[in-house]
Amino acid sequence: MKLWKVLLALVVLFVLLGGSYVYYRVQDLTVERLDDDLWVLRGFGGNTAVLRTNAGAVIVDTMTFGIQGDRIREETVRLTGSEPVLIINTHYHLDHTHGNPAFTPGTRVLSTERTLKYLNTLDADFWQGEAAALLPNETFTDQQTLFIGGKKIELVHPGPGHTNGDLVVVFVDEAVVHMGDLLFNRHYPNIDLEAGGTVQQWPDTLDRVLSLHNFDRVIPGHGPTTDRDGIRQFKSFLVQLGAIGRQAAAENWSLEDARQTEDLTADAGYEPIRFIVSLGLDRGFVLQRAWEETTGNFELVPAAREE
Question: Is the pTM of this model over 0.90?
Answer without folding.
Answer: yes
